[in-house]
Amino acid sequence: MNVIPSSVKTLKGLYDISGVEVGQHFYWQIGGLQIHVQVLITSWVVIAILLGSVIIAIRNPQEIPTNGQNFFEYVLEFIRDLSKTQIGEEYGTWVPFIGTMFLFIFVSNWSGALLPWKIIKLPHGELAAPTNDINTTVALALPTSVAYFYAGLSKKGLGYFRKYIQPTPILLPINILEDFTKPLSLSFRLFGNILADELVVVVLVSLVPSVVPIPVMFLGLFTSGIQALIFATLAAAYIGESMEGHH
């Protein structure tokens, strides 16, 4: 059975997908390195929003929490509960990873609906949510796969690989391919939903600019939050699965 060639082919397909483009894009060429400026700008804006919000909210923590401190404590508790539910009692070390994934995707998704990106003019293309680009979703999915391999190997050592021949060695190729296709699934699910949502809003704005877009945009905010939750939940579930060794 051609397990290794199939796995290599799957990884090559994931790498090729990172070159998929929808519309025009603006790049900087630095030596032999091509930088996707649109994603770089919007990603750093999202990071600045997250860091700025945290600094402002908790720079002076109070025994009786303020509204901002209360909100971030609630978010932290939510991420901890999510991690514990999916990973189990050893969830503690994974809270920062799961929380980072959730918050970055959540704010990125909402930025596409709430921030007036299109006001900023570029020589080519236009700005949009970071998760509206397949490069970003692949970049988020690959560390998730690395994390879940690391979790399994850290806990079980080389015995982790026994899971590939359970419940029967006949399933070895399928079990290997399942692990290599998980980042592909995570990438496409997030990218496809965010891109589709933004395209629907654009089409409706052009057809009925004063009536339909507002409720659709509110629906988009809801679905954007759900997509962030799904990604974080699946990432935590994959890590928990690798540590427990069951499917």
TrEMBL record:
Domain of life: Eukaryota
Cited Gene3D superfamilies: ATP synthase, F0 complex, subunit A (1.20.120.220)
This protein's UniProt keywords: ATP synthesis, CF(0), Chloroplast, Hydrogen ion transport, Ion transport, Membrane, Plastid, Thylakoid, Transmembrane, Transmembrane helix, Transport
Keyword Transport attached: yes
Molecular function as annotated in GO: proton-transporting ATP synthase activity, rotational mechanism
InterPro entries: ATP_syn_F0_a_bact/chloroplast (IPR045082), ATP_synth_F0_asu (IPR000568), ATP_synth_F0_asu_AS (IPR023011), F0_ATP_A_sf (IPR035908)
Localization of this protein: Membrane; Plastid, Chloroplast thylakoid membrane
UniProt entry tagged with the keyword rRNA-binding: no
An example Gene Ontology CC term for this record: chloroplast thylakoid membrane
Annotated membrane topology: Multi-pass membrane protein
Membrane spanning residue stretches: 35-58, 94-114, 134-153, 190-212, 218-239
A Pfam entry, by short name: ATP-synt_A
Similarity section: Belongs to the ATPase A chain family.
Function field: Key component of the proton channel; it plays a direct role in the translocation of protons across the membrane.
Subunit structure: F-type ATPases have 2 components, CF(1) - the catalytic core - and CF(0) - the membrane proton channel. CF(1) has five subunits: alpha(3), beta(3), gamma(1), delta(1), epsilon(1). CF(0) has four main subunits: a, b, b' and c.
Protein name in UniProt: ATP synthase subunit a, chloroplastic
Source organism: Anoectochilus roxburghii
Gene symbol of the encoding locus: atpI
